[in-house]
Queue: 4 jobs
Job 1
Amino acid sequence: MGISKLKIANGETKWQVRVWENGRGSRRINRRFDRRTDAEAFLLEFESKLEEERKSPFKGCSFENRFFRDEAVNWLKDGELRFSASHLVRVKGVLNEVLPRFGDLTMDKFTPEFLAKYQQEEKARGLENASVNRKTEVFTTILNFSVKQRRIPFNPANGFRKLKKSTTEMDFWDQDEAADFLTFANRIYPKDSEDRWVYVVYLLALNTAMRAGEIWGLRPSDLSRDGRSIQVRRQFNRVTLAMAPTKSKKSRLAPLNDELREELECLIQTKSINPDETVFMNELRKPVCHENFVKRQFLVDVKAWGGRSIRFHDLRHSATTMMIASGIDLKTVKEICGHADIATTMTYVHLISGAVERVAEIFAVTPIVSKRD
């Protein structure tokens, strides 16, 4: 930033001012003046304007001509450098759905009242609270990003509240239901069956609380040498079709009981699975596609079984609640499940309140009363 003296072709003298519009890396402004005093006046005015913007950075911002479509595209370009592949796919899906409806609205229209109405519409379509929240988070995140970029003066959705997560969204089978389903699966996928691996998947999910991606990423080398645990090291990302770290970015141990160990070892031996291959794989010896498994096996099997229908992910919830109900301490359950915070593990406690109440009926620690008392 400064003034320089120039000699042009016809011998005249000019005074040039070269400045950055908004700091280095922004658009550069070049101005030429016949007199130095004019150049100095321009520079003084420009510096005064910059100082004013530093004191009030949002003064030049407005909602005028700030359309949701443009702000969403701007946010998505930044997100392509920061989001995981699976998250990028999810937000693109949401934007493909909402941009035709809301893309031409200016950003000031996205008030708490507007988003609350959108919540009601999505709930009326039968979506669960968690699904609605994931959609509204896209709106609020774009608004916050535009504020940080100083493209709009403030977030018009301030005060908007997400829906509470319903306990019914975290469904689970109790131990009797889980055992009955495994009995059914054991019958339709007997030990000599080519599809015995399907039963092993159910057995693994209900005994370890592993996530679906972690199940599909399991390798023979993950079974401990002592045969008592599984090292959960990775998950198969169904979007990128590649292995990725676990959700917590850390490996952990999951329990391996005798029946599960025997089933896994038998499957590995029967299928001649190499240490670097996945235990569960398709005809091309590639990891199982989760969507195909749920559609072609799990949903079909649950319907044929005739019991209460839950999602495949709810097998993890079922395993977690059964561990807690059986008396395993919360810290151990937290480590087995790979929860980042004990508060997440605590959310399962209210799901088994009935079991806890039954414990209260048969278990009590009371002071010893001596005969002298």
Job 2
Amino acid sequence: MNEPALNEESVRDALRNVIDPEIQYNILDLGLIYEVNVLEDKSVGIQMTLTSPACPFGPMIIHDVRESCLSVGAEDVQIDLVWQPPWSPERMTEEAKLDLGFDL
């Protein structure tokens, strides 16, 4: 069986399976992923944030991000947790805003 292609699209698709347990929605559509970089050596760099610095599920979400990247063929995953720009609901996709009842 062929391995899935490791590229930005496959990583982003995998990240849709990572759910923020507090909001019950995937972190990609919540706007928590700021940047995805896939290098030729099969390493992946993720720049991400959490909904707040005090998020009790932060370690679990970061673990799930790493595992999702590994599941699509990454051999090394570097996660940079950043707080600038700060997360806000404006970073969410229109679909997520509708699903979660945010005014558009």
Job 3
Amino acid sequence: MKWNTLLSSKRSRISSTKNTNKKYDVRSEFEKDYHRIVGSASFRRLQDKTQVFPLDKSDFIRTRLTHSLEVSSFAHSLAETIGDDILKYHMDDNFTNKTKEDIGHILQCAGLIHDIGNPPFGHFGEEAIRTWFRDNLSKIQYKDENLASYLSLQMKEDLLNFEGNAQALRLVSKLHYLVDEHGMNLTYALLNTIIKYPVSSIEVDKHSGDIRTKKMGYNYADKDVFNDIMEETGTGGLRHPLTFILEAADDIAYCSADIEDAFVKGFLTYDMILREMEKCETIIREREKDGHPSFFYPATELKEFRKRGLKNDEENPDEYAVKNFTIRVQGFLIRCASYSFTKNYKAIMEGTYKTDLFEGTFAEGIVSSLKRFAYEEVFCSKFIYKMEIAEGVMMNFLLDKFVNAILYYEDITKQTDMDKRLIKLISSNYKRAYEVASKGKDEGERLYLRLLLVTDYICGMTDSFAKRLYQDLNGIN
């Protein structure tokens, strides 16, 4: 893979004002992407979507919006550090200062939209959609036949393996119907960067040992734009090099921030975090015996921050320690990810690198430990489970109602009065996108697109809107 093609500034639709405005608009195409994103309603809705704690009223706890801003910041920092190293050590004759500048802008944008396709209620919302289709797809009747019989294997697998990552590509490339069917009309380099898993739903292989096949990256309905992106950027179904950096930025943001938020919410204490970091430090010091010196000792750092908090008469030295430790961890992880990218540069550019950037570094144990720790102590807590049970009820109700209403969308004579009312609620943008996509398609593909119309509508909801709609439709004040 070569940077001159990887950083393609092509868009699905070429602007008619591109040449006439060039004299007055000195922004690069990737800088224009940034302004398209931050001005969009889809981006604004992230302020009311769950990161970890759904419908939380605290102004400290992160939402999808604040998480995305953090990922954007970390991704840009990684681009700066990695770009400097590639130039400093003359690792690639085709990598210039302009390349470094461009990847910074692309990754900054990618951080903003990497979660833009996620449904309400965080990752649980994704699982709720998958579960609903697994439980119901084979039971739905359409014209006295099983609906699933109308769908191809990939269409069915798209629904059974629903992915927020694939929905993000769909949203920004088609559903953001502002001018036409090309969505936000972002550059292909940016679109390729957010495709974490460049495989279809029937190519998913979680046991392949290659991170690119872990999940699906695009829907059958969006294969045209996916193929155009792959061809234009020259990735040919391989992971875009910048995707590894984006994923590292995401890991840095959420594995450290989840711990901080959980501490503030009272799920974790200073002592609990210290015990976990002591385990990590033991592993690091054991590894040092093999001649691999570290520059970061998590338990020691955490204790030092607490000592400083006590010395400075901080009102809450535990909180002081945890918050400062979080910042220190983030800096350490940025350094490790940057080192890993340059160390594995050749394999990444050849498309043969199969893991994340933390594997094989001192950060590997800390990242996995923080993820596992947050999962066991927070995501598996009674509080979260209780919230997820309520969220599941809401998601199931909305899917039940809208999927059944949408089946005869094209035949008004077979719609009940309730179906007509429910269809009226669906965003006109999504219905317009359906009309464009369904032209000339056979009945099976139109049915599939109607099912996607429902998931498009639900994924566009914020947490509060989904809850309010559920309450309104059930007559709950």
Job 4
Amino acid sequence: MSIRFIPLKGVSAAALALTLVACGSMAPDYQRPVAPVASTFPDATAGSANATAATAIEWRQFFTDTRLKQLVALALENNRDLRLAVLNIEQARAQYDIRRADQWPTVNAGLSGSRLPTTAGGISSTYTAGLLVTAYEIDLFGRIRSLSDAALAQYLATEEARKSVQISLVAAVATSYLALQGDEELLRVTQETLLTREASQRLTKLRFDNGASSQIDVRQAESLLESARVALAQVTRQRALDENALALLLGQALPTRLAADRPITAPALLPELAAGLPSDLLTRRPDIRQAEQQLIAANANIGAARAAFFPRITLTGSVGSASSELSGLFKAGSGGWSFAPQLLQPVFDAGRNQANLKLAQVGRDIATAQYERAIQTAFREVADALAGRATLGAQLHAQEALVRAEQDRYKLADLRYRNGVASYLDALDAQRSLFAAQQALVQVQVQYQQNLVTLYRVLGGGWSPESPTN
């Protein structure tokens, strides 16, 4: 279609048409859904009255182990999941910029020429140069604005997703580090048990050679020794697996020196945390804020789908110079402009617009369910961590008492056996029970400290704006 140039005196009318603004969005008013959880957490009173909110404590302050702080810093710098989350933010930001740019006309500079045969047998030439605006949509019913609002909400959701990834990463590194400390302690206990059982096996064999013990005692001692070797192989393998898991979180090989500042058996020095109310999670947990931004985006998409039922006005225009000769461009009297508005009203689309509106409404319902599920999941995670805080401390004290009792029992049983007062079966059973109690103690110690880390994570702790990836 050729462009007809009109004298420049009408350019004010074209400029006025291009400055029309949108009259608003047809998206439903956003209403935050009511949190589908109880008003308080169970076991929320188990903490100290002087406890602090997890979000008020940065991970550098929460963790006291210097080596752990170094590992967390390495993970924040090199972890690929966190790096991917940052790139997703950049992608969403670019998408939002594209949508926001749609609200404004795109102005291009153009130069064109055409030569057509005339009825008189000659050739008609037309050359044009100037600024062009092509198919600029006047957003009277807020379609473009709704799409821009949806893109903005998606961008904000990726920001929250990045924070959630960092919080999870910090907690995962700490949890893996504590598991590795537990492996080291189990390895130490197993090696000590192996030495004890080797000595016991040698003594039993010596007693058998001198007729003071039976062959079954020798076989029982050998069985106990081999079970310790089996346990040693298992713990060694588990330590290797936990090292591999930690290396994946760090995004690099483990530092050569990984000795902890404090052994896993030392009392935990992590700060007391205040659970607060479930409603606090709506602002503390980035994963919940992410789900809400996705709900806001779905709500905005309904506005865009509704606007599709109404007329769409587009403007195409240009201003510049036109001449029948290329050398005549930009000479006096060659200026002109064109203005070609277009209005399109949907008449028949085989139900496409109605289906798009239904799709947007179902998308909002899905986003609502996902938002409510995020709240319920967060509530359950906090409740589980609080249950661990309320019980693991008592379990740890009881397990420590059990280990002390089993140590005394083993000493007495071994003494009675060496003096011929009791059978080797009593000493064997005491030795086996002591090893099992020591293993259980290490596991409870790890669980107790890992639960404190979990509580810190589920309450929204672990985010630091000064992280290397920011």
